[in-house]
Design goal:
Elements (H helix, E strand, L loop, with lengths): L6 H16 L6 E2 H11 L1 H4 L6 H11 L5 E2 L1 H14 L1 H8 L5
Antiparallel strand pairs: 1-2
């Protein structure tokens, strides 16, 4: 659908597709499923972040026993939060590309 979309549009479409493929019929993920998805699909951003308080706070919230499920909006907030605190983000910022 976004064959001619911008890189940013394609990135968000990919995030939506990954989420939707893992979500239940109501379009939500359990906290355990969310944690697993982040660990398998977002490893580059979370690797090495285990000692950061914000990372521990996010993962602890996903480890809590709860019936609450994560919707796409909350999932994207998690992605942004993890991205902003990631060491990988700084590496990305240091890379300059030209077109």
């Amino acid at each position: 659908a976004l064959g001619k979309g911008s890189d940013l549009e394609k990135a968000f479409a990919t995030a939506a597709l990954v989420y939707n493929n893992a979500a239940d019929p109501e379009g939500k993920l359990s906290k355990a499923e969310t944690k697993s998805l982040l660990q398998t699909q977002f490893w580059g951003f979370i690797q090495g972040q285990e000692n950061k308080p914000k990372y521990q706070e996010i993962i602890s919230a996903l480890d809590e026993e709860s019936e609450n499920k994560i919707d796409f909006e909350d999932f994207m907030i998690l992605l942004v939060s993890l991205t902003l605190m990631s060491d990988l983000l700084q590496e990305i910022k240091n890379v300059k590309t030209t077109k």
